[in-house]
Amino acid sequence: MANPIVSVIVPCYNAEKFLPTVFKCFDRQTYKDFQVIFVNDGSTDGTLNVLNGYCATRPQHTVITGENGGAASARNKGLNAVKGEFFVFCDADDIIADNHLELLVKNLIENNADMAVCAIKRLSGEKADKYNFARKPRAEKLKIYDTQSALTQYFSQEVFDFPLFNKIYRTDVLKTSGARFFDGARYGEESYFVSRYLMFSEKIVYYGAKTYVYLQHKNSLMHSGFNQKRLDIFTNINAVMEDIKKDGRFVSVLPYIFVMRAGYSIGMLYFILRGKYKNDCVIASIANCLKTDATHIKKCKKIAFYKKAFIPACVLLTKIRFRKQIKKYPDLSGVAINELAAKSEN
Q: What pTM did the predictor assign?
């Protein structure tokens, strides 16, 4: 029996300088039955020409191109083009080990799982040229989760990481779940997609091999200063909560989602402190949201100890540092922050 085809979705925006490395990763894969769907997201550099040149001699791969709509929109376009039984995501500026696809497929099939999850190695983008491509990470002891425990793990991040790209998914589960990304979302778009997919999964396996290398670039989107697009995180998380409540089977996961949102609020307030953002009502809303969400920690048995200490400490510091904004807008917790930000700009 032939190996199942794996579709690899790669959104590309002005990725010309990174593409030779990711091409090298694909050419070195020990698992050969895969197609790569490159989605050129309105690049203004030479990305499209480079992609077309690579795929010209590799007919199993394809290039989709269109106007810039962000990574979420690009991934949706990639999902519509999936031909494989399984699919994975990969960012154009990251690295995958030679046995990345092999281990994902192996652990998914052997355990009859709906999702397999590897570990992530984080590496400074400046050290990318020092990565040892000859090294093939080994899978560690397997951990098996059902739907409930997988959702808890996903939001607590106690064991496996949050991103899209360290996971392999089944196309039939995708169709059943209807999981998609919110077009235009720039931050936190993975939370809704993955949680929606997990709700329709029955078995998830984690095996711990660090075969995905997440390169952290100084000028990347996640390391930029605060801007109101970061509030997309709330849109995605709020949609997750609505799905969980509507479904009714996994409401015990909700405290973990509140605590995860608290973590995002802390991150946003940190970026606000580093920058010059001055919208008091939005700042107060984030601060009050953090205060409310942090109260759910006591309901979470699988939250790391440092979070149980760190998040309440941040709540206290927030009350001190942003006391003027909170005093000015004391009742904004729980509002639709994205809508609030839009109104305050008008």
A: 0.91
Identify which of 32, 36, 164 has the alpha carbon closest to the alpha carbon of residue 101: 32
Are 261 and 237 contacting, i.e. CB atoms less than 8 angstroms apart?
Answer: yes
> 3-class SS at 187?
coil
- Please name the helix (run of DSSP H) or strand (run of DSSP E) that holds residue 36, with its range, or none: strand 34-41
Alpha-helical (H) ranges within the chain are: 19-27, 47-56, 71-80, 100-110, 147-156, 171-177, 189-199, 232-247, 254-274, 280-294, 305-321, 323-328, 337-345
**345: helix, strand or coil:** helix
Cβ–Cβ under 8 Å, residues 97 and 137: yes
200 Cα distance to chain centroid? 18
**What is the rounded distance in angstroms from the CA atom of residue 50 to the CA atom of residue 33?**
23
Vertex 213 angle, CA 171 and 192, to 5°: 40
Task: Give per-residue pLDDT as tens, 38-75.
Answer: 999 999 999 999 999 999 999 999 999 999 999 999 99
Look up residue 227 and give its two tokens: 């801007």
